[in-house]
Model the fold of this input.
Amino acid sequence: MPSKSEYFFAMIFLTERPLYPLQVILREILVESNQSSVSYDSSSALDKYKTLVEYCTIVVATLPILCIYPFIQKYFVTGVMIGSIKG
Done:
């Protein structure tokens, strides 16, 4: 399982955008939305837009997991059952 430092290493060492992991791309989106709201006058419409962008990135990041998990769940259960058998 990757640790928190894996995100940081990817951010530092990867220079080609197609190789970026999902976390780095999501971070870029969130930083851009925060910078755009800082450069303009702070209004409630921009704050709502910033919040909307943050929530949309969370949904986009979790949607593939939610779609794939039901199909591969049986393999997780099988692996847990095999690992729990004592000899």
The chain has three helices and no strands. The helical segments are 4-13, 22-39, 44-84.
